[in-house]
Amino acid sequence: MAITGFYKTVKGIKTYFEMNDGPADGKHTIICLHTAGRENRQYHGMFELLEDKYKMYSFDMPAHGKSWPLPGNKVVDNYRDYGDFVWAVAEALEIEKPIIIGCSMGGNIVYYIAQNYPVGAILSMQGADYTPTIDASILELLNHPYVSAQHSHVEFSECLIGRACPQEARDFIMWGVAQEISVTKQGDLSQYNGFDVRGTMDKITCPVLVVHGVDDAIVTEKMVEETMSRLVNAERVVYKPVADYGHFLAVENPQVVAEHLDEFLTSI
Amino acid sequence: MIKAIEELGRRINTSCADTFANRYFGRFFTGDMTLKYDDDAFTLSLHQGKVIAIQAGVPNTGIDLGVAGATKDWRQFAERKSLTVSITKINPNNLSLLGAPLRTRQNFNALAYLCRVFSEVLEEQGTAGKKVEA
């Protein structure tokens, strides 16, 4: 497996990218979006599995991983700015009609992006169009001098992992908790909590793949089904539930996601 | 219910002690954890992660931190045994957090694990979801 890291300035932010060794002249180019508080290494598994077929990019959102924060050490805290930044990434990489895939907050934002920008297709993992799930006091205390975000959120992440997740992947997910930045996580979960694009889901016309780890108590099957019911104008909607895997699906089981994504992209 | 609480305290000090103290940082906790099940309340007093006293009701000094729920709430909790999940706004039959939010967040993992073990004890004693006299 060959993964290449590089920096590119996007909207004035020094942004860290990684890409696999996939074919540059392939039919589809994929941009991968990480979960809240984390960074692009979540896609190393899929990079390897799909490197013979697809050129794939992932990047650290501003203030995540090795990317710089916004000026004044600010973070992105609303989904519109988040989605617009992702599209600026696609433009910076000069990718026309990118395939945008994301998990959790990334699985949400693909819907906003598809509503507002000319994507080739989207894959939503553990995403929905309305996620008002987190108590306000938890959000407030995420960035408090007397609360360690890295420690107080152990159970928060742990409970989202599916029962069949391999230990190595589980360890990586929990290592991610230990690496989180409090203000960054607060910004992510604030925009996640305020995410509501239900009223404009009919603007989505591109093909949509939904791969859902159903052992996820935060993003439920009901939420996903309600979201898909509002995809009334999408060219195609494919739903692939994955039993016994949970919220960090791209890390927990990259094989099954890669298989579904390849099958989906081959068919469009 | 008192039997379940006493068994909970015993496990926190023995078979579950390492997980409570180290994985979930319970060794840093000194204070009271109150569990309410319907109208029954019990308080476990801990010193550096060890249960040193159990009493019925809430402490005279007031609730430090804790969790409350009706039978249906604890029954739902038993399905996932995650306090995070059970307090998310999308769930019906949520458990309620007691005490100060700041102290709760500081000790959330330990409290969540205490609730998990409590739920396991209730299941093993066949009292989960049932009203039991104290």
Describe this structure in words.
The complex is a heterodimer of chains A (268) and B (134). Chain A is globular. Chain A has an eight-stranded mixed beta sheet, with helices on both faces. Helix content of chain A is 37%, strand content 18%. In chain A, α1 packs across α11 and α2 (79-92) crosses α3 (105-116). The longest helix of chain A is centred in the first third of the chain and has 14 residues, at 79-92. Chain A contains eleven helices and eight strands. Chain B has a single domain (2-124), classed as 2-Layer Sandwich (Nonspecific Lipid-transfer Protein, Chain A), CATH 3.30.1050. In chain B, strands 3-2-1-4-5 form a five-stranded mixed beta sheet. Chain B is globular. The longest helix of chain B has 17 residues, at 108-124. Mean pLDDT of chain B is 92; it is low at 130-134.
Write the layout of secondary structure elements.
The complex is a heterodimer of chains A (268) and B (134).
Chain A: E1 4-10, E2 13-19, E3 29-33, H1 44-50, E4 55-59, H2 79-92, E5 99-103, H3 105-116, E6 121-125, H4 136-141, H5 149-152, H6 154-158, H7 167-178, H8 182-193, E7 207-213, H9 221-229, E8 236-242, H10 249-252, H11 254-266
Parallel strand pairs in A: 3-4, 3-5, 5-6, 6-7, 7-8
Antiparallel strand pairs in A: 1-2, 2-4
Chain B: H1 2-13, H2 17-23, E1 31-37, E2 40-47, E3 50-56, E4 65-69, H3 71-80, H4 83-86, E5 96-99, H5 101-106, H6 108-124
Parallel strand pairs in B: 1-4
Antiparallel strand pairs in B: 1-2, 2-3, 4-5
